[in-house]
Amino acid sequence: MPRIARVTTENGCYHIISRGNQKQPVFLKGEDYEKYLSLLYKYKERYNFKLYSFCLMPNHVHLVIEVGIPSLLKKVLHGLNLSYSQYFNFKYDKVGHLWQDRFKSRLIEKDNYLLGCINYIENNPLRAGLVSRIKEYPWSSYIYRQRNISILDNPFIF
Predict the structure, then answer these.
(1) Where does residue 14 fall: left (phi above 0), alpha (psi -120 to 50 degrees), or beta otherwise?
(2) Alpha-carbon distance 24 to 15, whole Å?
(3) pLDDT tens for residues 109-134?
(4) Angle at CA 49, nearest 5°, toward 37 and 64?
(5) Alpha helices in 7-59 (DSSP H)
(6) CATH number of the domain at 12-147, please?
(7) pLDDT digits (tens, 9 = 90+) for 2-46
(8) pTM of the entire structure?
(9) Cα separation of 51 and 44, whole Å?
(10) Dihedral sign computed on CA atoms, order 106, 4, 82, 29
């Protein structure tokens, strides 16, 4: 049975979810989170997409990105997920799939829903009980936004 085609558009803004295979952890140590973020930055530079939000959870990743050309969405996520999988499998002497299925993407509009989506993503560690205050979680764009770290783009500059 063929896959259903993704909904993509020019200058599309997407909520992306990549989940660990069988919901297993994809980050085992702090350096794994750091590696994923360094790869995210590398692919952001390479493909010039806009990053509005992210949250790296132990067994999945949330991103809100905007790509100018629809075909870039697949290239960005393929490169990012493949590079991280190779790093993870080599480091932990694993084989096979790290990610469950292909990444999920939902097209979102740059309006109030975008703010709600960013809020949802950044509060994920709080809802999951990983921290008691969101500012305690180091792998979310919330911290980066508070510290004005340059990897994030402003979603309301057109």
Answers:
(1) beta
(2) 21
(3) 877 789 999 999 999 999 999 999 99
(4) 65
(5) 30-47
(6) 3.30.70.1290
(7) 556 556 678 889 999 999 999 999 999 999 999 999 999 999 999
(8) 0.91
(9) 8
(10) positive
